[in-house]
Specification:
Belongs to the aldehyde dehydrogenase family. This is Gamma-glutamyl-gamma-aminobutyraldehyde dehydrogenase. It comes from Lentibacter algarum. The active site is at residue 209. With 439 residues, the protein is of the alpha/beta class. It has two domains: 2-210 and 416-438, 3-Layer(aba) Sandwich (Aldehyde Dehydrogenase, Chain A, domain 1); 215-397, Aldehyde Dehydrogenase, Chain A, domain 2. 41% of the residues lie in helices and 18% in strands. It is built from 14 helices and 17 strands. It has helices spanning 2-13, 22-38, 40-51, 55-76, 112-125, 140-152, 166-175, 188-200, 225-237, 257-270, 289-304, 338-341, 357-364, 380-389, and strands spanning 83-85, 91-99, 102-106, 129-133, 159-161, 181-185, 205-209, 215-218, 249-253, 308-311, 315-316, 324-325, 328-331, 348-354, 372-376, 394-397, 430-438. The strands form four sheets. Strands 10-13-14-9-8-15-16 form a seven-stranded mixed sheet, with helices on both faces. It has a five-stranded parallel sheet with strand order 5-4-3-6-7, with helices on both faces. A three-stranded antiparallel sheet has the order 1-2-17, with no helix packed on it.
């Protein structure tokens, strides 16, 4: 890791990438996107072998998304202008956007290529060098991406991918005095340690995208309950629930509670769980045995606290190997229950009934997280009130999940700070430099 950071520092200081004209950097980033699309199946299979995401989803969410992200920032990089300040007539005030220097990026195992691109593309677009550490259990696709970047013409030393344990390689990256900014997606516990490492070293800026316990609110006047159930089921169960924005808390207006839970259970029970490389699979594997055991522990605790398992709740054994869990729906969950408050990161949905708009907002905001949310209603005024009242980085209305590079993704409260995606992501990777020129 120390050698990688030193290589990134040398590459930044000698300007081999930083000083390349924007048209040159754009050409390289577009070539990276071209090669990601060329190697899309290989990249997807490498990722699936690591993390168990169902192939059809991974092809779109990993390689497809990563290529689109590199193209977005390739097109954006030469459209980021500085400013001329409204100063006195005898002074010229200029505001430049300068690259921060060496960026350290630590990404998780659930969507390594997609999330890696969210960090890499804007950082590289702005002329920075990057040292990337993948998760211990999902590095294959990012190692392949490093080779793709070299093939596309990214100069040596500008991107460095270093595998290793978080407690060793990740700590070394976060403590380095030669890293100017650190970006991370993962757990709150690790995020706290990264802030401590910044304080212990060079006070590098740290941007964190952390966990979520996202509410998905269904009102009795939802335009189509059957559609809401179908979309909501995938909003929690796709990738075995291993999605940071997963709608893991279902809040249902009491008047349609039983009907909607029945619809959700029917959707959950017809999902095919199995080998993620089987093209008919809809829900793939849990990442690891510790993750599976943690998921099952949440269910056991919920049942002990008085919840009821409507469907699922157990492990599914597969001859193909891997760790699989049945999509699970728990009803009778109250705000004080463990499964209501804490992120499972598995295919476990908690259901809580409510009677009023104010109660729905109160329940939605009753955790330490604020990453994502969903609202299903035909009442436009209510939808706007919900968007205003719910503390979350993104609020979906009459859908759950889905967005593109034009809008930011980030959280509030203990879901983190800073944003991935959109032009706002660029703010993490630039310094504002003022030139004050006496005329």
């Amino acid at each position: 890791m120390d050698r990688a950071v030193a290589a990134a520092r040398r590459a930044f200081e000698d300007g081999r990438w930083r000083d390349m004209p924007p048209a040159g950097r754009k050409k390289v980033l577009h070539k990276i996107a071209d090669l990601i699309e060329q190697y899309a199946v290989e990249l997807t299979v490498l990722g699936v072998r690591d993390n168990g995401t169902e192939f059809n989803m991974a092809l779109k969410a990993e390689a497809g998304s990563a290529a689109g992200t590199f193209r977005y920032y390739a097109e954006a990089l030469d459209k980021i202008y500085g400013e001329v300040a409204p100063t006195a007539p005898d002074v010229l005030g200029l505001v430049h956007h300068a690259p921060v220097g060496v960026v350290g990026a630590i990404v998780p195992w659930n969507f390594p290529l997609m999330i890696g691109a969210w960090k890499l593309a804007p950082a590289l677009a702005m002329g920075n060098s990057v040292v990337l550490k993948p998760a211990e259990t999902a590095s294959l696709s990012l190692l392949k991406l490093a080779g793709i970047c070299a093939e596309a013409g990214l100069p040596d030393g500008v991107l460095n991918v270093v595998t290793g344990q978080g407690a060793v390689a990740g700590e070394a990256l976060a403590l380095s005095y030669d890293v100017d900014a650190l970006v991370f997606t993962g757990s709150g516990g690790v995020g706290r340690r990264l802030l401590e490492y910044s304080a212990r070293s060079n006070l590098k800026r740290v941007y964190l995208e952390l966990g979520g316990k996202s509410p998905n609110i269904v009102f009795a006047d939802a335009p189509d309950l059957a559609k809401a159930a179908k979309v909501s089921a995938m909003g929690i169960f796709r990738n075995s629930g291993q999605v940071c924005v997963a709608g893991s808390r279902l809040l249902v207006e009491r008047a349609v509670h039983d009907e909607f839970v029945a619809l959700m259970a029917a959707e959950a029970e017809k999902l095919k769980v199995g080998d993620p490389l089987d093209l008919e699979t809809q829900i793939g594997a849990v990442n690891s045995i510790p993750q599976l055991e943690g998921n099952l522990g949440f269910v056991e605790k919920a049942l002990a606290e008085g919840a009821e398992a409507v469907t699922g709740g157990g492990r599914i054994l597969q001859e193909t190997g891997g760790y699989y869990m049945a999509p699970t729906i728990l009803t009778g969950v109250e705000r004080g229950h463990n499964v209501f408050q804490n992120e499972v990161f598995g295919p476990v949905l908690s259901v809580t009934a409510f009677d009023s708009d104010d109660e729905a907002v109160g329940l939605a905001n009753a955790t330490d997280y604020g990453l994502s949310a969903g609202v299903w209603t035909s009442n436009l005024s209510r939808a706007h009130r919900m968007v205003h009242g719910i503390r979350a980085g993104i609020v979906h209305v009459n859908t759950y999940g889905g967005s593109d590079n034009t809008v930011p993704l980030g959280g509030v409260k203990q879901s983190g700070n800073g944003h991935d995606k959109s032009l706002h992501a660029i703010e993490k990777y630039v310094d504002l430099k003022t030139a004050w020129i006496q005329l």
